[in-house]
Each structure stands twice: as structure tokens, then as C-alpha cells.
Amino acid sequence: MAKKAPRRTAERILEVTLELFNRFGEPNVSTTLISAELGISPGNLYYHYPAKDELINTLFERYERSLGELLNASDNVRNVEDAWFFLHSLFEIIWNYRFLYRDLNDLLSKNRMLETHFQTVLKNKTRAIRLMLSGMSRGGAVDIDTREVEPTANCMVVVLTYWLSFEYVRDPRNALEPENAQQALLRGAQHVLNLLAPYLESSQRQHLLQLTGAYQTSD
Length: 219
Hints:
Structural class: mainly alpha
Strand content: under 5%
Shape: elongated
């Protein structure tokens, strides 16, 4: 029984670290701040995670695992409704680990593990989008030339990767706060899916407009 306490403490450390990273940005959160927020000594924190990079890497591994599970379902997308759900779910995972995207360039420049693994993340996202397009093509939802699949998938991955950065630049003080999550996710899914509009079958295009119409903004 005594062995369970360290695991609970380690889990609490990760939960609080993720919350602080998401709220303030990873560069602005020190291990001292994490310890203070948890009400534990820095030594207790270092016992579980001897370096800040270990916290970052462990959180990234969780993100990567969650992302991989979802991306594996991309081949099941057959129509706009499926694609909307898939992309919204993808943005939810990105939102849950938004510090990675908010501080992406800084993190990659100083963390070799993230540098290499994020390249794999991009490849996996692109592969999943290609599979999604293939499934929608088989389902009759899209009509896209095979030569356009790769550039279209790349464009969709660019928006997926940098959408939260765009949101942050538009409104740095409020964009990444929890109360704004739902609208940010919906706008992101909408703009990624709109890249498929020229290729959608007419009834599917109308359905896309119905799905996204309620989330149009004037800004």
C-alpha cells in the first residue's frame, strides 16, 4: 500500500504542471512555482522529476499517446459529419496540451526529444488526413484529384498545428483561457474542414455549411 503514495504525488505533479503550463506558458513556469502550487518542497518535486524537461517529456508522451489513438481512427471517416467529429476531437486533444503549441518553436529549439518526436507527430497527422480524404472519397463525399491530396493534406495539417497560435495572436490575454475553449475548437475545426469545400459533393457542402454556420464570427 505504501508504494501507491509516490504514484499519486507524481500524478498530481503532472496535473498541476499541465495546468500551469497551459495557463502561463512553459517558459514562464519554474519548478519552484510548481512546488509552491502543489504545497510540496522542491526536493519532493525533484524526487519524482529531477529536471523540468522530464515533466515536459512526460506530458508530451501522454499527448502523443492520446493523439495516436485518435489518428488511428481517421480511416473510418466517410463524410462531413464524421470529419467534423474527428477534427473537433483532434482539436480537443491539442487544446488539452495547448502549451506545446503556444510555445512550440521555443520548446523545439531547446528539447531534442520534442524536436524529433514532433516531426513524427506531423508525419502521423498528415498520414491520418490522407486516410481521411481517402475514406471520404470512397464514401462519395469528396471528389479530389490524387495529385491534390498531398498539398491539401499538408495545408490542413498547417492549420491544425498553428491554429491556436493564430488564436493567441488575435487575443493574447484571453484566447487560451478555458472559458474560450469551445469557440476556439469549433473555429479551428471549421477552418480545417473548409479547405475541403471545393472538393465536396454538393449535398455534403451544404451539410458543412449547416454544421459550421452557427460558429461564423465577424472578426
